[in-house]
Amino acid sequence: MSLRQVKPLETPIYHLEKVIRVRDEEAEDFNGPLDLILSLLAKNKMEIQDIQIALILDQYMAWIAKRRALDLEVASEFITMASQLMFIKTRMLLSIHDEEAISELDQLIASLEEHQRHENFARLQAVIPQLSDRYDVCRDYITKVPEHIPVNKMYRYHHKPEDLLRAMAAVLERSDNRMPPPMAAFEGIVGREPYPVGDKAGEILERLRRFGVTRFHALFKGNRSRSEIVATFLAVLELCKARRLRLAGTETDCTVTSTGGGDEDFEFSADTY
Q: Is the Cβ–Cβ distance between 207 and 214 less than 8 Å?
């Protein structure tokens, strides 16, 4: 029984982000050292940002050694990149915080990413003609005649009674939730303190007897509620109507003086607010 030599499986192709597919490093001539490093990254299923200099350098130097063993020419740019990788590895072994080594590594990563973008763009340019031909075929042969849709603006859908009831119930439920709560809900939380207009008018007259004159805005200083502010304004109007006060000045600033009228009682249009 003869044993037939089984051909080893080809190296699998991994489609990873920022990683190109694996190629045969020994048999293929790379366009440059960056192309070789990208191939080594793909072989190790490693992304550009996660590059391990020590591992990539060992495989990089092994590739150069195999090329020389086969009497194949190694371009000078590959030797230059090898020295750069060796420099980064040596400096990072001495100190992981070496700024110069970190800067060299960042430049290498940026160069690899830019080279990969150019390769991806070149692949897209290569398949664009094929995709364009397929688009033309689909455009010319896979077509559909436009359908004629009659114009009819009348709504002809017939609703079932239960559908209408459910829709109406949903609308009522939403409207109930949006309505403001009744005033009874605020009882005990916000109290309303009516301020008598007559009391406020007496305070204004007493103030004028003591000081003789005051400014209109000064009458509202010290008011503790909206009701008292409104009562002050109404008291001024009532006193002016009864000719007990005189206002003089402009719309923005005016003075209030007493006319010196009698102390006879008079009725207010609004007793409280």
A: yes
What is the strand order of the sheet 254-258 is part of? 213-215, 254-258, 245-249
Q: Which two tokens stand for residue 43?
A: 């072989």
**pTM value?**
0.35
pLDDT above 70 covers a percentage of the chain that reads 70
Q: How many C-beta neighbours within 10 Å does residue 40 have?
A: 20
CA–CA separation, 127 and 130 (whole Å): 5
> Degrees (nearest 5) of the Cα angle 81, 68, 43?
60
pLDDT averaged per 10 residues in sequence order, the chain, 273 residues: 43 46 54 84 84 86 82 76 83 76 85 86 83 68 72 71 84 69 62 77 88 86 84 89 85 81 57 49
Is residue 245 a contact partner of residue 204, using CB atoms and an 8 Å limit? Answer: yes
What's the distance, Cα to Cα, between the start and end of the chain in Å?
Answer: 117
Domain boundaries, the chain: 33-128, 197-258
Q: Cβ(266)–Cβ(231) under 8 Å?
A: no
The domain 197-258 belongs to what CATH superfamily?
A: Structural maintenance of chromosome 1. Chain E (1.10.10.580)
